[in-house]
Design brief:
Length: 363
């Protein structure tokens, strides 16, 4: 909100011939480009001598419809995603060079980035669990004493509390609780979206997102996640009867083309547990862990709240590097067969083109 206020006031100062919404759209666009830059650095770090894997991973990150349409929306999701991706970049940096974890400067920078993600959106707290486990494992693997591991963890936690503590203290004083979520009864908003609470079928069924991607969230958890990751399934938050100005002749087929990158990501998840690389395997496992904890959290909300829009893949926008890494790993195995390699590459190129053209705003 502070950044948006500065941008808005700057627009007023220079009397720009644009509406406030158009001026403020600079913020999410800048965040989208920042995520691409972070993704580029991550792919070079994870796949240093594999140009093909770097291109595939970065392409999945950049042209995933979720990234394209969220980078054109106002809100804090994209801002939080940048810092979440940056925190993931730092964890990968530590995996590749564990000795950097012993540097207080690196600990401080990492804490600042993680704190910025948490202050931007409280859901970034989910990143702490897999990150703590990963960093503790890294240090123990490098024969670091238990005392040193504990001390490093406490220092990072101390730095995070310094940068974020004021926010939670203020909330306790003003609101009586550390933070207020969107569906809290204290807000006086009665949230209910038909068809209401979930059934078992809503948690296991899938398929409607391919045939009816618009508002596929009403059909179940997996349809909701798929339609909001590979299509603007919730219409950018617009009401019924209103549609965002996308090129639907291209955007709608993306739901089908996205089967390929989805398959690559799942293959990457499977191969993560069979990978024997000294530094690649920890990165893959960490990526899987981050995605798993976010999916579990989203699934919990979807199962307990009568609000179908809680199952949005955009909550995982900060995990774009994880999807890119796993997708690149999966593609390496899908394209091993020379006969199918050109077909897969061709389909992937179609996905890239249709995604980009589909979400290039026309009005």
């Amino acid at each position: 909100y502070i950044v948006s206020a500065i941008v808005f006031k700057t627009g007023q100062l220079f009397s720009l011939p644009y509406t406030p919404a158009e001026v403020l759209r600079v913020v999410p666009l800048a965040c989208g480009f920042a995520q691409i830059e972070i993704g580029y650095r991550i792919m070079r770090s994870v796949f240093p001598k594999q140009a093909g894997a770097q291109i595939i991973g970065l392409s999945i990150m950049t042209f995933m419809p979720m990234h394209l349409y969220m980078s054109q929306q106002l809100g804090n999701e994209v801002f939080a995603a940048v810092f979440t991706s940056a925190a993931i970049f730092y964890v990968i940096k530590f995996i590749n060079a564990p000795e950097k974890l012993l540097s207080q400067k690196e600990q401080l920078i990492f804490a600042v980035i993680l704190s910025a993600a948490i202050l931007s959106k409280i859901s970034a707290f989910l990143l702490i669990v897999p990150t703590v486990i990963c960093l503790a494992w890294l240090l123990s693997r490098n024969a670091t004493s238990q005392k040193t591991i504990t001390l490093i963890g406490l220092k990072i936690l101390f730095f995070v509390l310094i940068f974020t503590g004021w926010y939670f203290i203020r909330n306790m004083l003003e609101l009586g609780q550390p933070f207020v979520n969107g569906w809290s009864t204290s807000r006086g908003i009665t949230w209910w979206q038909e068809p209401g609470f979930r059934t078992l079928g809503d948690l296991v069924a899938f398929g409607q997102a391919l045939a009816n991607p618009v508002l596929a969230s009403v059909y179940g958890l997996w349809d909701s996640l798929y339609s909001t990751m590979w299509f603007d399934g919730l219409q950018s938050g617009l009401g019924i009867g209103q549609m965002p100005p996308w090129n639907y002749s291209f955007a709608l087929p993306v739901a089908w083309f996205s089967i390929l990158p989805s398959l690559a990501i799942f293959v990457g998840i499977y191969r993560s547990f069979r990978c024997k690389g000294t530094t690649l395997k920890p990165v893959l496992i960490y990526s899987v862990s981050c995605i798993a904890i976010y999916v579990l959290a989203i699934g919990y909300l979807y199962a307990t709240l009568p609000i179908y829009s809680t199952a949005k893949a955009s909550y995982m926008l900060g995990l774009l590097p994880c999807f890119g890494i796993l997708g690149a790993k999966g593609f390496a195995h899908i394209t091993k067969n020379g006969m199918s390699r050109m077909i897969v590459i061709g389909l992937f190129a179609c996905w890239v083109v249709f995604s980009y053209v589909g979400y290039f705003m026309t009005g």
